[in-house]
Amino acid sequence: MNINIITVLITGLIPLIIGFIWYNPKIGFGKAWMKVAEMTDEKMKGANMALIFGLTYVFSFFLAFALVFMTTHQHHVTSLFFMQPIEDPSTEMGAIYKAVMDHLGNSYRTFKHGSLHGTIGGFMTALPVIAINALFERKGFKYIAINAGYWILCMGIMGGIVCAFA
User: Fold this and answer.
1) How far apart are CA 132 and CA 128, in angstroms?
2) For residues 104 and 116, what is the distance between their CA atoms, to the nearest angstrom?
C-alpha cells in the first residue's frame, strides 16, 4: 500500500492555515487564547517566527503522516500480512491479500470517513495530551477548550484529506 506523499506534504499545511484563523485576535480566539495562555505582545514580538512556523510544519507533517494510518483501513489490511510475500498473487498469502483487496477496494476512502477518524483521533489523543499538560500547568477549562478544539478541527480536516487522497 503506497502513501501519497504529496497529499501528506500538502496536508501538513492545514494546522498553519487553521491556526492563522483560530488564533487570530480579530477573527478567532486569539484574544481569549492570549489571556488564558498568559501570552503578552512582548512575548509575541520576541519570538523567532521562522523557526516556529518551520517546526510547526515539520510536526504537522508527522501528524498528517500518522493520520494516513489512522484513517485508511487498507493500511490495516496490509499490516496483517507483515513480512509475508504478498506481491505475487500466485502465492497463498498473495492470493488471500488480493482477494481481500479486490473485495474491499477503496471502501471507506472518503473525506467524510477520514474526517470522522481524524476527529475521533483528536478527541482521543490531542484532547487528553493537552488537558494533562494544562492541568499540571494550572491552566483552566478555557485554555483546554481553545487548544484542544483547534487540534480536533485540524485532525478532522487533515484526516479527511489524507483518507480521500490516499
Assistant:
1) 6
2) 19
Spatial separation of the C-alpha atoms in residues 88 and 95, rounded to whole Å: 8
Distance CA 8, CA 73 (A): 17
pTM greater than the 0.90 cutoff = no
C-alpha grid cell for residue 110?
Answer: 472518503
Per-residue pLDDT of the chain (166 residues; tens, 9 = 90+): 678 999 999 999 999 999 999 999 999 999 999 999 999 888 888 889 999 999 999 999 999 999 999 998 766 677 667 667 777 777 887 788 778 877 777 777 899 999 999 999 999 999 999 999 999 999 999 999 999 999 999 999 999 999 999 7
C-alpha to C-alpha distance for 91 and 73, rounded to whole angstroms: 23
The identity of residue 125, as a single letter, is T
C-alpha cell at 54: 518551520
